[in-house]
UniProtKB/TrEMBL annotation:
InterPro entries: Bacilysin_H2HPP_isomerase (IPR052535), Cupin_2 (IPR013096), KdgF (IPR025499), RmlC-like_jellyroll (IPR014710), RmlC_Cupin_sf (IPR011051). CDD domains: cupin_KdgF. PANTHER family: H2HPP ISOMERASE (PTHR40112). The lineage of its organism: Bacteria, Pseudomonadati, Pseudomonadota, Alphaproteobacteria, Hyphomicrobiales. This is Cupin type-2 domain-containing protein. Residues 34-88 form the Cupin type-2 domain. Gene3D superfamilies: Jelly Rolls. It comes from the Bacteria.
Length: 105
């Protein structure tokens, strides 16, 4: 078994990102939101994304849909959908991307 270790980096103010594992077709990334009110700014990308809420509470926007999520919730963000989130309670999101997000390496 081959295990790589990736550093934790600042993604946005109050948000830390760490790649947990990757291959050309798949990537798993932890996003740690350190403070209430911190934002994952609206953006889009060609990757399909799955998000799992490990801890904390968040308000997500995907295109024109807003919804709140908490521990144990998960959902899919389609390719090129405009999305972002507001941290309601500090916590961690585990995001999976297909294919891999080379811009995170």
């Amino acid at each position: 078994m081959f295990v790589k270790s990736y550093p934790e980096v600042t993604a946005d103010p109050g948000v830390r990102r760490q790649v947990l594992s990757d291959s050309p077709d798949l990537m798993v990334v932890a996003f740690r939101f350190l403070e209430e009110g911190t934002e994952g700014k609206l953006h889009n990308h060609p990757h399909i994304q799955s998000t799992y809420v490990e801890s904390g509470r968040f308000r997500f926007t995907i295109d024109d849909d807003d919804f709140d999520v908490g521990p144990g919730d998960s959902f899919i963000i389609p390719s090129n959908a405009v999305h972002g989130c507001l941290c309601l309670e500090p916590g961690t999101l585990i995001d999976t991307f297909t294919p891999r997000r080379d811009d995170f390496l």
